[in-house]
């Protein structure tokens, strides 16, 4: 009782102190040197790298010169959701409090952005606060349009529907439960037409489910089919060919240019629009894994910093806004024509950091250019993974090409499986979002 009271008093005084710190910050200034919008993978990574870059140049920023603006309670390790869905990780391990991930030297405003006023070098938050900046970095992600498919939200909310998705914290564990519960019938995996986060993920979970069905003696009773709005298995020919060969060998049906439009969970029927002849195709499912359509964030779409599609318009190499020279963007929110992955952020962040630093220091960007590097660690089963790595132009850019014992990266192997399952989650939490992990070059910051 006494102990509880003492703890409460301590908690209260702690809360009082921290709100004092924030209150004084707010009253003194609502102007920051650098405003970073978004406390996701891109925002945290780049905010820390920028702080470190100024310090390394002997021009350290003061505590609180950089502010991260994000109203979210939680930060998610989204690449972990395929692992959760495969029974390899607990979903709680993919989530941490945003406030615990922002170091002392970065300020944090727990509020969301409502609008941008780049002519006035300011943003306005949903609570009406105006925040001014010298430089703005936008890394706010993209949004998932769950309502873009008729009947989907209802189906996902029903625990016995057999419909699930790896694309949210709330539904990723349902995928695993449904895979384990399925005894026979049709298991259908979908991918929409258009841009999504991690283009390979919709088939990763399919391969994992397929392998699980084989290993637990259910393979003969379950038919697996892939219905995708895309024209092929993958955007890069080398990997697409390898994956299509695997699909045929494994007896998985491939239905291309089929875009899911409707889920009738009462009758377990899924309807697709076939782009080849514009027909509607309705199929029966027992298990349905849905990849929802995605698009630009509403608050960026139509804003002065956005392109026509609603992404932040940047130069694909420098990551500087093509409209306002003190605005920058990386990650899913940016218009850079790369695939939207954490791996892309490992290469974008140091380039953006170098150019932003150089621009603030000298008025000119540096010679650093993002080459479009991105990766898709494509799980093909338990203990095997195909590590697709490529750059702009859908051209392979393989870290391990020429390494002995590894050989061709289009052939799945066990080492890469452990990268995805063990190394990347560790490197993400302990290195990347602290600004200290640079993807293929590990802990060594690339030089430009
Ligand atoms: C990577 O660094 C990373 O972040 C921690 C990922 O995130 C989930 C990746 O998928 C990939 C591919 C990398 C790149 C690292 C190497 C060693 C190729």
Automatic annotation (TrEMBL):
Q: Which GO terms describe its cellular component?
A: mitochondrion
- Any keyword Protein transport? no
Q: Which SUPFAM superfamilies match?
A: FAD/NAD(P)-binding domain
- InterPro entries per the UniProt record, alphabetical: FAD/NAD-bd_sf (IPR036188), FAD/NAD-binding_dom (IPR023753), Sulphide_quinone_reductase (IPR015904)
From the UniProt record, which GO molecular function terms apply?
FAD binding; quinone binding; sulfide:quinone oxidoreductase activity
- Grouped into one coarse class, the protein's main location is mitochondrion
What's the name of the protein? Sulfide:quinone oxidoreductase, mitochondrial
